[in-house]
Amino acid sequence: MAPTFFTTSTSTATATIAPDRSKREKCWLARDNFFSCLDKHNIVDSIREKNKVDKVCRNENTSFEADCISSWVTYFKQRRVAEWKKSQAIEKLEAEGAVRLEGQLPPPPVKR
User: In which broad location class does this protein mainly occur, judging by the first location in its UniProt entry (predicted)?
Assistant: First the structure.
């Protein structure tokens, strides 16, 4: 039997449907509650410190993971760590006397 590359089957697609406004708000509220719990217990990276999270923020994490699609959960957890690292780098630079520049950088030169 030859392999089938194209099919006319009408099976239902399992594409993810984007969350509507109320689902997004529910997700954001669950995220904020989870992150508040992490802040209260001085946890920055909930992925690396999973055991500690399971002990002190299990309910909040469960709600967060139930109320948000998994790609958002991963994104928000990773973004939290990235934002923390960014703020730490800025604090270090400011402590060393760096001054924040306002405005935009000029565009890169065009190679001819």
Answer: cytoplasm
- In-domain check, residue 14: no
Domain presence at residue 53: yes
Task: Let me know if 94 is exposed, middle or buried by CB neighbors in 10 A (0-12, 13-18, 19+).
Answer: exposed
CA–CA separation, 56 and 58 (whole Å):
6
pLDDT, tens only, 18-39: 778 889 999 999 999 999 999 9
CA distance 43 to 78: 13
User: In this structure, is residue 62 part of a structural domain?
Assistant: yes
pTM of the model: 0.71
